[in-house]
Hints:
Elements: H1 2-21, H2 28-50, H3 56-73, H4 79-130, H5 141-152, H6 159-173
Helix pairs in contact: 2-3, 2-4, 4-5, 4-6
Amino acid sequence: MERTKAILLGMGMGLFLVVSCEPKGNTEEQTESIKNLESFVDSVEIAVERDANHNWTMLDRRYNQLVSNVEMAYTDASEEAKEDWRELEREYEEAKMEAKNKTDKWEADAEMHMTNVETWWEQNTSKAKKGAKTTADDIEEGAKESWDWLEKNADKLGSEIQTRYQKIKLDLQG
């Protein structure tokens, strides 16, 4: 009987050591927190593909909240378990960089088109004012493409370019 107790006690301690030393699997909390972070990062990536202009302060705040949830859930997790989380962090940072690059290109395009129209406007203001009625149709072919681009994207222009655009638009409408 004593021998049986000793064997059972030994097996129980061995099992306890094996279970306590084994890397922990994903808990429901870990799975849920990483799924929420993954969904958020996916939605940010999709949003950046459509339009790069977003409120990054608000997005970063939500992202940091989700990361905090993951950090709490993964406190005792193995390094291997944390790899999905690190990959999502890389994807989020890449989405932010892509958005910045798209925004920079957008601003450069808007500035180029606005400068093209302003140059035409300065060269032709006196001539345009002499006409009976000045309209956007009077824009020479060289500036027409830029004017069309500005009109198509007027609601997306930055405030400084928007002001410059509106000034010429009002002048053209007479």
